[in-house]
Amino acid sequence: MNQPRPLDVFGDPGHPDTICGIATPLGRGGIGIIRLSGPRAMPLAEKVFHGKHASLSGLSHRVLYGNFCDPGSDIALDEILLTPFKQPNSYTGEDVVEFSFHGSPTILRRALEILIAGGARLAQPGEFTFRAFYHGRIDLTQAEAVADLVDAKSEQSAQAAFQQLQGTLKNRIQTLRADLIEGLGWLEMSADFVEEDLEFKKVEEIGERINSIAQQISVLSKAYQRSRIVRDGLVITIIGAPNAGKSSLFNYLLARERSIVTSTPGTTRDTIDEFVNLGGYPVRFVDTAGIRKTAETVETIGIDRTINQLSESDLIFWVVDGSVGLTEDDYETHQLIADRPAIALINKADIATGQQIDHCRRSVDLADVIVISAATGKGIDQLIDWLTTNHLNFATDRRIAPFLINQRHLIALEAAREHLALADRALVKKESYEFVAFDLRKAAECLGEITGETTPDDILSQIFANFCIGK
Amino acid sequence: MSEVFDIAVIGGGHAGVEAVIAASRMGASVALVTTDVTAIGRMSCNPAIGGLAKGHLVKEIDALGGEMGVLADRAGIQFKVLNKRKGPAVWSSRAQTDRKLYEAYVREAVELLPNTRIIEDSVVDIKVEHGRLTRIITKSGSVIKVQSAILAGGTFLNAIIHTGSVSTPAGRVGEQPVIGLSDKLAALGFTVGRLKTGTPPRVDGKTIDFSLMTVQPGDNPPRPFSTRSNGNIRNQAECWLTNTNEACHQIIKQNIDRSPLFNGQIKGVGPRYCPSIEDKVVKFAEKPSHQLFLEPEGLDTDQLYVNGFSSSLPEDVQLAALRAVPGMGDVAFVRPGYAVEYDYFPPTQLKPTLETKLIENLYFAGQINGTSGYEEAAAQGLMAAINAVNKLRDKPAFILDRSEAYIGVMIDDLVTRGVDEPYRMFTSRAEHRLHLREDNADQRLTEYGYRCGLVPEERYLAFGEKYRRVTDEKNRLGEQRVPTISIPLKYKSLRKRGAVSLSHLLRIPEIHYQDLGEIDHTFTPIEGVIGESVEIQIKYEGYIERQLAEIERFKRNESIRIPAGFIYGEMPGLRTEAREKFSRIRPLNLGQAARIPGITGADVSLLMVYLRASGRIGPKSRI
Ligand SMILES: Nc1nc2c(ncn2[C@@H]2O[C@H](COP(=O)(O)OP(=O)(O)O)[C@@H](O)[C@H]2O)c(=O)[nH]1
Ligand SMILES: [Mg+2]
Questions:
Q1: Helix, strand, coil: what percent of chain A each, to 5?
Q2: Which of A247, A248, A356 to mutate to test the pocket of ligand 1 (most atoms within 8 A of CB)?
Q3: Which of B109, B232, B478, B577 shows its CA 20 to 30 Å from the CA of B135?
Q4: Do the Cβ atoms of B144 and B10 come closer than 8 Å?
């Protein structure tokens, strides 16, 4: 997670600046949107926009056609569509103008410069959403969902974030919290009405309630793993001996799955990685230099880096050269991947003999083995099938809630579950009810933190730290 | 009367009495205006002080230097700690008191006060200049100049008593209500509401067959409320338990249309937790029986109070129904039960000091704030008086927060959430309950009482000494070790070999502090409260520490103060409802703002962001 910024970077929202930023970079069809928000948005837009209407008043929510001009030189920069949104019915709750450009990133940058020269200021990351929140247009979970949408690397991700924007995660948590508070009520009755001869709910009934809530919470927690994958991608690291065919496999996979989402250059010389979209989920393949022993020393080069990379991976592809068999380096690798999710890929099936492959298969000693050829593409379909079935199969798993659970949610959920476990233990140990109630109350508070029922300041900062400019 | 009083206390009930005593002890000149001097400190309902969560309040009043605990100990005739089978946080002291003695001791305490005038009259109006209270006006026509006033009118404002179809204007049976004052206050802008409460019949003990009932003895040894009453209390009376039955319920059901609660005669809202017998029979129709406790009214009387049978049914129905109950076949009434309806002022009109937001130097305390119970009233009287005197002396407001005392919980609930039924204290209202125990009430509050000038030096020193001894004893238990072989086999849960410390042993649920001498013959336990404090602190250390950590967290939001006079109209995104509520309640800090009903997390986040972004709280403020 990013380092939280203090909220004061946004300036005094009581006396807001007019801010501008690129809302969407040039995308498909070559349209890029610039958003302008604040008290001076309308007059500023009127200065730079040359269209049928000289004034934008009375034209809220209408799409207008015209030219974006530099008021200094009166030269038209681009043909644009302009949509004014009169406050409070806009994304931020302030006056907002959105400009849709056809032109290149250079034109967008130039347009921003013109707006800034006209008195606007470049928005901070998250500042538009912050203003939306500030003006009561969205609540915190929704603000978070916007952050998730911004980062969405795939359709699945966008969908889940959208659902959350609609408030379903909030509803789900609120229901759990209400159930919990009802259970708490049963306990409280017994503490406060000893004089009365009320019939109290039996201990087992309360225990059942606690366990049922804990179970539902763990369903939500499980969604974290999936959420992390839809947001950040499933990380697959390809390791193996030099010349086993790692890079060839990497290239083959990228070429086959043409829908590359984004591309991040490797941070070290040793690794390079690329995103691929598999069935709506982003998958990040990391190609490594592999593990090898140098001639001079027994010491292994890059082993620390590789171990680091492995611990950040969700899955390991261990590529073995089927035509050569296991090398000494491969035994090193085998040690490293023990206890981590991994599959062995016996490569170069096109040139290896059946006997060699069988021998290889026996010696890799892994449950999952697929024979492939990075040269011919043999076995790659099988590999993709295996991958989607075993690691990206969320849709059919009903135990996983369709929400985007971020780290903040996960921490709160896990804390709630811990308190429930403590409460249950106290109940089993027949501790007095006020002790059980103590932890149930805490659990309810943790759930409240997710929905913003109780919102410590640090949570706010966390949420707004996760934005990029223009949102 | 040309004299000026620092403080007028209006009403001589339990709130008024604590207010008068505290104000006078703090050196203020006080006028106590009450309709009937002989009724000062009267117990209108049951002859008992304390009870669940109420015992906590009494202990807190005592620690702050209030009088209720001492009075209850003196007048007490049976003492009992409730909930003893549960954890120490919910142990609550309760005492049966002799009604007449209690009144007499209260009267004596008030009459002995310096700088205090008791005026038998009733206040019918107040004078306000530039938003400040300046005078009170009585029925007899006196205009009394005051610096400030504490209104503690109990259930007397526009009060009506109902027994069956008979309704009589009265504050208590045979006592005149106060008519007119609440209309005057309404004219000044106060909102007035209506509540209802009830009381059961008093019966003649000579007509009861106790052999058909179960005796309920007091604790042996009895334990006092006050640290000032050590050794001077004793059990001198018994309570009796019996049960209602189908026959009794049948009679009530047949006559339900004659209950003013059910035929629409009573409009005020009654307490759900203390329902009338007709309510119980109708709402819990499936229950074949309800408990009734017969409580002695005093030592020199046979009168008994039938706890659990509060009713506003006509006298003949009450009597017939009660005669169906075992042991009460021939019961005779001293007085039937009745319901009383009265005016109250929704307490969200108050600041956390109990001063009204509308009129400076006017304070409200007790049942007129919508609470029920002597203890709740007394605690408010005490707090109102401390604040009234502090204000006259330009001293800071005295506000206890929710982590410090039940008193803090109660006042915060009242001024932040308001009431929709008579407010009774419960332990579940206190989210920091594991810390707010009776045993540490003195530890939590004596310091404050001392600084207010209510706890005298000598008692303050004794308190310091007590906690030094507790600490020493805890250290001793940590250091003193016993070989495990000498530990009796019955403490099976002990697995360790070698030697263990006494505090280790004390963590075993079945081992109590007083047993330690049995296990380690070189160890002599200290008798009394010190040993008990030591045991609680060691045995429940884990939970207590976690509770204290929670309190730390709680204090973070409490410490984000909202400037006085903050204008919510300036906040753009605030929902209209939130804006209205914030402006009306005027929370002191972010924590209180979050507790206002109907305020959402988003509203609070917004407020926090606004306070922060507009520089009203600096980035350095500890959040
Ligand atoms: N015949 C054949 N050659 C392959 C295959 N995969 C990789 N190679 C060749 O093996 C050599 C090493 O491949 P490379 O991908 O660079 O291996 P890396 O060092 O593991 O990254 C290259 O000459 C590739 O052309 C395969 O499946 N079949
Ligand atoms: Mg390579």
A1: 45, 15, 35
A2: A248
A3: B109
A4: no
Side-chain half-sphere CA neighbours of A104 within 13 A: 1
* For residue B492, pLDDT beyond 60: no
B191 within some domain: no
Among the candidates B337, B361, B388, a domain finishes at: B337
- For residue B177, being part of any structural domain is answered with no
Q: pLDDT per residue over A143-188, tens digit each? A: 766 666 555 555 555 566 656 655 677 788 889 998 888 888 777 7
Closest alpha carbon within chain A to B52: A192
Residue % of chain A over a pLDDT of 90: 28
Could you tell me the pLDDT band of residue B621, with boundaries at 50, 70 and 90?
A: very low
Split at pLDDT 50, 70, 90, the class of A378 is very high
What's the pLDDT tens digit per position in A252-269?
888 765 433 333 333 334
CB contact under 8 A, A195 and B89: no
Residues of A in contact with B428 (CB under 8 A): 188, 191-192, 437
Domain A168-227+406-451 part of CATH 1.20.120.430: yes
Question: What value does the CA radius of gyration of chain A take, rounded to a whole number of Å?
Answer: 28
CA angle B131, B137, B141 (to 5 degrees): 155
Q: What is the CATH number of the domain that holds B607?
A: 1.10.150.570
Of the listed ranges A267-271, A373-377, B504-508, the least confidently predicted one is A267-271
Q: What is the CATH number of domain A7-139?
A: 3.30.1360.120
- Nearest CA-CA distance, residue B189 and chain A, Å: 32
Judgement on whether residues B577 and B525 belong to the same structural domain of the protein: no
Phi-psi category of B83—alpha, beta or left, where left has phi over 0 and alpha has psi -120 to 50?
left
CATH: 1.20.140.10, 3.90.180.10, 3.20.20.20, 3.40.50.300. Which one for A233-391? 3.40.50.300
What residue spans define the domains of chain A? 7-139, 168-227+406-451, 233-391
Cβ(B423)–Cβ(B370) below 8 Å = yes
Pair A114, A48: CB distance under 8 Å: yes
B438 and B536 housed in the same domain: no
Type of residue at A332: E
Q: Omega before B509 cis (within 30°)?
A: no
Q: Which ligand is nearest to the CA of A377?
A: 1
Lowest mean pLDDT among B264-273, B454-463, B585-594: B264-273
Which residues 6+ apart lie within 8 Å of B542 measured at CB? none
B176 inside domain: no
For the entire predicted model, the pTM comes to 0.79
Residues B367 and B508 in one domain: no
Q: Complex ipTM, two decimals?
A: 0.84
pLDDT (tens digit, 9 = 90+) per residue, A93-131? 899 999 988 877 778 888 988 998 999 988 877 788 878
Domain limits for position B575: 559-614
Q: Is residue B165 part of a domain?
A: no
